[in-house]
Each structure stands twice: as structure tokens, then as C-alpha cells.
Amino acid sequence: MTATVVTPSSPIATAAGRARDWLTNPKYGPVIVTAVLLVGMFVVGASRYRGFTNPQVIANLFIDNAYLIVLAVGMTFVILTGGIDLSVGAVLAMSTMIAASLLQAGWPPAIIIPLILVATSLLGLAVGLMIHYFQIQPFIATLAAMFLARGLCYVISKTTISITDPVFIALAQTRIPLAPRLSITPSVILAIGLVIVAVVVLHYSRLGRTVYAIGGSEASGVLMGLPVARTKVLVYVISGFCSGLAGVLYSFYTLSGYALTAIGTELDAIAAVVIGGTLLAGGYGFVLGSVLGVLVLGTIQTLITFDGNLTSWWTRIFIGALLLVFIVLQKVLTARRT
Amino acid sequence: MNLNTVMAHRLFWPVVMLLVLLIINLLAFPGFFSIQVRDGHLFGSLIDILRNGSPTLMIAVGMTLVIATRGIDLSVGAICAISGAVACSIILGSSDPGSPATVAVAVGVSLLISLVLGVWNGFLVAVLGIQPIIATLILMTAGRGVAMLITEGQILTVNSPPFKAIGSGFFLGLPISVLIAAVIFVFALVLTRRTALGLMIEAVGINPEASRLAGVRARGLLITVYVFTAVCAAIAGLVLTSNQTAADANNTGLFIELDAILAVVIGGTSLAGGRYSLLGTLIGALVIQTLVTTVYTVGIPPIATMVFKAAVVTAVCLLQSPRTTELIESARRRQAHRRAKAVTA
Amino acid sequence: MTESQPAVSMENISIEFPGVKALDGVSFRMFPGEVHSLLGENGAGKSTLIKALTGVYRIDSGVITLAGEEVSFHSTAEAQAAGVSTVYQEVNLLTNLTVAENIMLGREPRRFGFIDWRATRARAAELLAKLHLDIDPNSRLGSHSLAVQQLVAIARATDIHARVLILDEPTSSLDADEVQELFRIIRELKADGVAILFVSHFLDQVYDISDRLTVLRNGKLVGEYLTDELLRIELVQKMIGKELTVLEDLERKTKQQTVDEHELTPYVRAIGLGRKGSIEPLDLDVYEGEVVGLAGLLGSGRTELARILSGVDRADAGSLEIDGEAKRIRTPRQSIRDRIIYSSENRREEGIVDELTVRDNIVLALQADRGWFRPIPKKRQDELAESYIQALNIRPANPDALLKNLSGGNQQKVLLARWLAIAPRLLILDEPTRGIDVGAKAEIQKLVSNLAENGMSVLYISAELEEVLRLSHRIAVMRDRRMVADIENDDLTSDTLLAIIADGATTEAVA
Q1: Is the pTM of the predicted complex or chain greater than 0.90?
Q2: Of A207, B66, B218, C38, which cross-links B71 as Cys (Cβ 3.0–4.6 Å)?
């Protein structure tokens, strides 16, 4: 049709134009901002604190936040469809409780871990069915799941159960060396593996494309003949599975199960996804952006630890402020484009 | 009125649930309904339910109005923590923590701050047009950090009799916190039903575009309800803090936003906005608190309360889901059809 | 266009919604390699028929056959698989994804189970090239104009090896050149033997592209015609219909008195009022106590004009004078302050507040005007409700009934009551009698003429010419978003008016 062809005046002008295009594009803009922010935080850290540039600092970011990366992956699927999952923190805690209590009862890890993953996926399935077939808002349905999971934690045990299983301890303490004085844990490898799978699913499978389509417009997706119902339920199953897996990683990390653990982690996961550039209305965003979001949250924590003068509550305030900036940014970007 | 119209009433299921819970209590603990007078104060399980449920009710009243406008406010728990922290730090910082004047200043400043926080939420929702769930998520996240900043990470224990009275004192034989909740409830009822505020809120919640064409100014309305909710939350925060005689930035009002939303939903106000029922919210709050008490009296470990809460939310939501109504309708129709067929045959 | 086996044949189709018969025994057929236009005013049943064919709605009775085979689709996916694809008016694609994805979504070529993006893009590019659409398949759909998005939707539709292609108002967002480009593509598809269903409210385009026409009215079939054999004026007549009315002849005495009033300042005067993409700048005067009829087909700009006059949409050109004073009206609230009231044609979405009572709906605008802190006393509310229920004969006569439980006609009367309660000086009624029964219709018409006699100005929008002719002192005609006539209703006949609506005429030519 009458597609206007713009003749490039100079390479520099096109480069600048392209940069502007990318920044104002709701797909890439927020992710780029997050990446720049992350680099900026590292520059600040490196210039102010000794030892901040140690590669192990970066490795630790992954080690400390492997479970959060896994949660954020599941949350990304849900938020891409325009939904939300408040239950992830409680489901994570429930998984640690199941793991710890069954280990105490002498069950083998090879049965416990699959069992947890199946149980949390089934919980996700129930939530998804409530949301899709009974048209209950995701907020309320996942809130119910949160109560249920947290309550079951208490039912299992009020007190902390420590994990003494040799397999879990081995998985917790193994360090995989990458370079001299640089190592990661098996959990990191698992988390990264999951991220890769998620990227492939979202970008190279029809399921993944349908997830984006639902976020773009559920009604259009139906009219285009896409399997909307099935996919909408499935994202909650995926989020349930990820919460279970995150719980397993978390129990490697803490070597215990505790009913009150990970309170408010759902907020961290949501914050990571939003800061990572996924639109809360759905339709735009990347799993890799969510990973960047987790790293930003982790880096804030690290900066505050290194500083020593700033108290830990600044973390929450920083996260809140970042959320504000990113939500307003998203609002501006989508307003301009539509 | 026949049974069908009673059953169709929006408060039917919540009331049934409340009655069932009370009966369970009565069976498990025959003295449940007895109320004694000690030192001129009323004591008893029912009074306990009222007293422990009052902070949730205060917030739920505001939340009802917010939800009626198609909104939601997740930040109320954080506002509770901030108001408690502000009040306690003022009282601790003053030379005379025990004087009513100090407490009055502390309460006044907390309420003023909550006013500002409410305007902030309202601004994000009404002026910037951010989805309410997200807009209030910001303050939910940052709010507890702010509260920590005020308490400097400490649990601030205050020893001030006038302040302690807010949460655990009695007036005319009734706990002061119950009276405060009653005042808020009646105030909201009168404010929305004696003025046209209730009509406007419902109109905007049911059909925003039709309301705009009828000349309703949604912006001011939205800011008003978010401010009101924030103030309710601050008062609830003061009650909670006073009850514990300490401000704990981490735990004051933790999860209270969820209980408040739950109370509203159980009370029959739809999260989709529109028609609301403050009376329903009152019943909803009582259901939640009675549930907690029941779990105690029946001898189930209290920690399992959350499982029951989950069951109640799920049951109420499923009962209210249009899909369920549809299923019941079609089942009924099929039955009627079969009956009609049987008659003709 | 051979009279061979039809590509689609729908026989005796009926669809009933609660309370309305949306389609009543309608038959419809299309042949391979023809462009067939479906015509009718709002509520005629066009979109219901399309949705029946594409599996969105289930039919209550009737038979649908596709190339001789009886079919029954339960979803759009099934219809698409059978070769029936649709391009909807509001482009139903995903602006958050790329052009290539939008074309190929759900049908991406795969290798080893993964989407083969290279093949996907290549296929998309091929389809775009077929439509001579020179855009990057990797660009985001949302970054393109609506016109391009429309063509992408067609590209998607053609990939399904469509035997039947339904284009529902495809030109509403296109300019003249873009329309020609679309028509070229339609002709190519037609040459390939595709049966194309073309729905548009632009009659010029209908006559330009289609071979055959089917006209619906009020859910019923009016007839099927060859385009070449049906005069445009006949077509419009068939679409609008000449309804037999039970209304007694309204007195026309009010008309005489307006003649000398034109010496005075008009109550509302629009000068060069317009809005980009909505209506071209136009002038309009409305005098006190005058009923101005606004005629024109659906989409001609009649509703858009009303929305701009009342601040629902903002004008971006021209100015407005009230009582000779320049005024800026930017929101409905301001317009209500100036007692200019717009009653929307879209009763459900923009009119009623269905979960509230009759009384609440009646007092809503008045209360909003006073502000919420100055409530109308309960007694006064009851009086208002009672008096309007009486005056407008609202049934059931219960101020506490929820509005959603009232019939369409009674809901409309409640809306009128809401507006009358604020004593408007200019009342803009957009299709106030659409979709309501004959009795209520007559009552509303009578009310309008009484109001004008008492000095209220009324801008009356209706697709029914008889109604406009009967009520109006003066008639303005909109056509293709322009005002093409502004004439006294002295001895106008529906034929003259039809001629203007169908073929257009400048003010000078008619006056």
C-alpha cells in the first residue's frame, strides 16, 4: 500500500533514529532501561566499594537468587497473559515444608522432588480452572491458593524442620568451579536451564506465541482460532510448577523448611517481572527481562550490604521507587503507541 | 417473601455461613454466647470476636468503597505499619509520653500522613490512570520500608496509658476499638447514603462511560475513596499498635489487606465493581473473625486457620460465579424439561 | 458469477437472543468468484448473520451449507479450517506482535516441533507481496496505520486458502487511495474464485465493487438483487423501509412559528466545527423551540456530530456559540452546565446504569450537576421519579425496579427522564426510538414535539426518514462525514430526502 519509504540521510541519523525507536517501543524500551540501570548500578558499586568488581559478587547474585529467578520465570508466563499469581511465595514455602517433613520421615529425595512438582502443578491447574471456567479474577483465585498453601505449611509443622538428607546437603554445598576462585551452585545451573527452556517455549512454540496473543487481546485470540482456554489454564500450571521448583531450590539454599519462610516473595517476583519490562496488562515482555529484574533486585541488596551505612529497609523503598518509575514508564510508552 | 427470594438475596450465603459458624461454636462450647460484666466491662467470646475483628472491619469499610469503583487497595497493610510507626515514634520522642496531648498529636500526625498516602494512591489511579492493583502495589512494597525507616528497624514499645486505651480500653462497657469501628462504619454508611456519594460511586463502578456522559466527575470521587480508605487503614494501624503497645514495622497489619478484601468479597460486593453493601462487609468481617475463633474453640490447631480461609474464599467465589449460576440454571431447566416430558408421556 | 453451486448457502436461519429475534428466517447465498454486499441499518442483523456463518453464534434453526455440504461450526477455528475467514471492522489482530506473526499465528511452519521463524517470515512475506504490501514482516503490527493493519488481516485471511472471505466494514478507516488498493486485491481474489462478502455503509463503494446485494431489515430478509439492476434510491428505500405507523399525524403548527424566529440569534451555533477522522468542518444553527432532524446513513457522521456538539468528543476545528457567546465545551459535564444534553444511541454502553434503580437513573445527571455533597432530598427524588414515570408512562411504574429488568423502550424513557430532569435547552437525541416497540416509539415522538412547543431545542437523529420528516422543522443531511444539506422541512417528501442521502446534493442545489 502507501508505505512511505524513508531514505536514510546518514548512517548516524539512522542509528539515532533506530535507538529512539527501540527506546519508545513497548517491547524493548523497558528492557533496555533495565539493562542500562543494572550496568549503572554496577558502575556505582565498583566506584564506591572495594571488592565489588570481584566476579564472585556476580556469581553470588545468581546463587542467592536462583529460586527467585525460577519464580520470576513462572510469573512472567502468567503476567504475559495479563493475569497475576499471588500464591507463588506461599507455594514455595509449602514446597520447602513438604521436602523437609518427608525427608524427616525418611522418604528418598528421588520421590519427594517429583512429588512436589506434581503437587504444585496440580494446585496451579486448580487455580487456572477457577480463573478460566468460573471467571474468578486471578487476584482472588491465587489469593485463595496462597491462603491454602500457607495454611498447609502450618499444618505440616509450626517449627523449623532442618534437612539432614545427604543428597540435599550435597546439592546445597557443591560448588561448581568456573574459574579460579569463581564458582556457582547446581541450583544456578538448574535456574539457568529453566530460563533457556522458558525462552524456547515462549519464542519457538505455538504455546508461547498464544501466551503473547492472549496478553495482546484475548478476544482477538479467540477469533483467530487460537487455543485460548487451554493456554490460559496452562500458564497457572507452569507458575505452580515453577513455584514448586523454586521451593526445592530454596530448601537446598536454606537446608530447612519453615512455615513463615518467603513471606512477601510474590511481591519480589512481581516486582522483578515488572522491572524486567513485562507489561502488567500483558502482551509485552521477555523472560530474560525478568532475569534482569531479579538481578537488579539482587544488586540493590548487594549494594546495601556493601555500603554498611544504609539499612536493609532501604531495599523495599528502592524497589517501590523502581516499580513506580517502571510503571509510569510503561504507561507513557503504551499511551504513545496506541 | 418466599424461600427463593430469600435465597436470591445477596446476603443470604454470608449470613448462612455466619450462623453455621456460630452454631458450631455453640455446640463445641456451650458457654459461647454468655457475656459477663467484670469491672463494668463486658467480656465474652462474642465481645472478643468484635474486638479482634474491628481493625479488619475498619479497613474493609474503606475497601468496600474502593472496590465499588472497580478499584482495589493493596497498600492498607503498609499504611497500618506506617501510622503505627509514626504514632509510636512521636510518643517515644516526647518528654511526656503519658499525656493525652502527646497522644492526640501522635494520632493527628499519623492521620495526616495517611491522608497524603491516600491522595498519592488516588493520584496514581485517577490522574495517571494506572490500574489500581498495580498503583497500590507500589505503596504496598515501599510502605513497610518507610515504616522501618521511621522506627529505625526497631520494635518501638511505648508505655503510654492514653495510647494503650485506643486498642484495649473500654468505654461504656464496650471495647474502644469496637466503638471506633462502629463509628467508622456508621460514618461511611451515613456519608454514602445521606449524600449522593454512594450513588456516584456505584454509577462509576457499574458504567464509567455512561456516568461520564451524565456529568459525573470520576476523578475527585476516586481520590476521595482512596483517601478515606487510607485514613481507615491508619486508624486500624493505631488500634493494632496500641493493642500490642508496640510498633512493629514488619508485622503490624501484615496480610490485613487480604482479610479486608476477603471480608468485602464474602459480603457480596463484586470485585468487578458496582453495587456494594457495607452491611455485607460487616457480615464478611464477622465471618472471618468468627472463623478464626471457631478454629480455636473447636480445637483445631489455630495455625490451620488459613486453610479454612482458603476454603471459605473458594466456596464464596464459586457460589457467586456467573458460571455456577449458569450451571445451576441449566440443570434446573433440564430437570423441568424432563418433568414436563414425563407429564406429557 | 455463474449460477452453479453456491459457495455458501444459508437457508431459513433464525437466531434468538433473550427478548429479541436477531435473525428471523433469513436465507442468504453466495457464489464462487463473486463479491456480494450485505446491507442494512443498525440492528438489521448483518453482523448476526456473519457471526452465524463463522461459528461465533449457534443458529436456532436453519441450514448452512458450504459448497453443497451441510456444516455446523462451533468455533471460528472450525470455520477457518473449512475455508471461511473473516476480517472484522475493528481489526481483530494483535498489535503487540509482528506482522509476520499476526499473519501466521497458529499455523507457523515447524521444524522438529519448534517454530521455523525463517519459513514463517518467508511465507508471510510471500502473502504480503501477493497483496503488494511493502512492509517489513518483522515490524510490530501496532506501528502501522489501521489501513495497513486491515490489509495484514486480509493477508492472514487469504493464507487460510479461503473459499469464502468476509470483509466486515473493511474500508471504514481507509482513505480513497487505500480503498482503491483494497478493491484491486478484492478483484484479484475474486478472479481466483473466492466468494467475497463485503459489508460497508459507503454506498459508492458497494456499487463500485459488488456484483450482488442482499438487504436485511429488522432481522428479516428484504431481498437479493443484482447490483446493476437496483437503483441506489431503491436500495436506500429497502434498507430504511417505510414503516406503517400507528402515530396520529402530529400537528405541524409549530413549524410556522419558527420562520420569523430565524431573525433572532440561534441558541446554538456551530461554526466550522469538525474533528479529524470524524467529521469535516461544518456549520449548524439551532434555534429555540426548533426540532432539527439529522438524517443520513449509519456511519455518515451524524452521531459524530452529536458527540462533538456535546463535548463527549473534543472538536479540533471551529467554534461554538451559545446565545451568541463563544463557548468552549470540552467535557460532557461542561455541556450539561450549558444545558446541552446528548442522549447516546448506544443505550447499553453509554446510557443506562443497569444495576441501579429507575429512580437512581433518573436523578443521576441532576445529582452529578449539583455535586455529591448536596444530595437531592429523598422526597424530591421520589417526586421526580413519580412524575416522570407518570408523564412518560414508564412500565413497571416502580421507582425501585432495577433498570436492567425494564424493556428497551422503558429504559429509553428512563434515560429521557434523566435528561429532562436537568431542564435541557438543547436536547440531542441519537436514535431514541431504535430497538423499541411501536407504542413506546409513538410516545417518544409525541413527547419530542411537545417539548419543542414549550421552547426546547431538539436535534433529532434517526435512520428512519418518516420519523425525521414528521418531527423536524428543519433537516440537515450528513453523507460521508460531510453535511450535504440543511433545508426547511416545508414540503419535503421522503423521496427527496432519500435522493439527498443516496446521491448527495449541495445545500444550494436543494434549497
Answers
A1: no
A2: B66
